[in-house]
Specification:
CATH architecture of the largest domain: 3-Layer(aba) Sandwich
Shape: elongated
Strand order of the largest sheet: 5-4-1-6-7
Number of strands: 7
Distance between the termini: 14 Å
Number of domains: 2
Largest sheet: 5 strands, parallel
Helix content: 40-55%
Order of helices and strands: EEHHHHEHEHEHHEHEH
Length: about 220
């Protein structure tokens, strides 16, 4: 990150950057067994969630408002192809999704705001992004959030970055974007004229990537 002026604003991806989640398969399996008395097994739970995730990723932009999100969730439950009523599957699916903030997320956001940096979450997500930020305690620590389903544009498309800059009230040249996906976050930000920062929390990391959000705090100091 050296060689770049201190940012006036930082855009942040959500999942893999600010948020993570507990492995959902055991929770799904347990919730269905409680509701139906049937154990679908570990492999069955993983297969159902794999199908659900594939469907969700292909249709997440349908969840741009409350009605659209409910319909999307129903269709995701149906895509799991389990031998139970859809409302039962949907309830178990929602119970299996347990998000939490990374340990460094809240402290880093507080420090960045104290340094005068504007913070906006920008994520390829449905409208429930706001609920996830609220339940993990991060919503009060940022200046705004944009889900791709609300904007009608997903990273790496430039329109969602333009909307985020408008929300942040800054120019591209005065803004950084932090995310964990090279194509969507790094290439998308760079194409929009925004300085990209790749975060790699686990596994091999390329030169220049950061491991935690603490690195942003040091870089944003006057």
């Amino acid at each position: 990150m050296g060689g770049h002026d201190r940012p006036r604003a930082i855009l942040l991806d959500a999942l893999g950057t600010l948020l993570t989640f507990e492995p959902p398969a055991p929770h799904l399996r347990a919730a269905l067994q409680r509701a139906t008395g049937v154990d679908i097994g570990a492999d069955g739970a993983r297969a159902a969630l794999k199908a659900e995730m594939a469907y969700y990723r292909a249709h997440l932009d349908d969840g741009g408002d409350a009605a659209g999100l409910h319909d999307l969730r129903v269709r995701c439950a149906e895509a799991m192809d389990l031998p139970f009523p859809t409302p039962v599957v949907l309830g178990a699916l929602l119970a299996s999704l347990r998000f939490r903030a990374y340990a460094d997320s809240a402290p880093a956001l507080r420090a960045l705001r104290a340094a005068g940096v504007r913070l906006v979450v920008v994520s390829n997500w449905d409208v429930s992004l706001h609920e996830r930020l609220a339940e993990t305690g991060l919503a009060p620590l940022v200046d705004g959030a944009l889900a791709s389903a609300e904007v009608g544009s997903a990273k790496p498309d430039g329109a969602i970055f333009a909307a985020a800059l408008e929300l942040a009230g800054t120019s591209a040249s005065a803004t950084w974007h932090v995310g964990d996906t090279p194509e969507a976050d790094v290439e998308g930000a760079r194409a929009a004229g925004i300085h990209p920062v790749l975060i790699v929390r686990e596994g091999p990391a390329p030169v220049g990537a950061i491991r935690t959000l603490d690195a942003l705090v040091d870089s944003s100091q006057p």
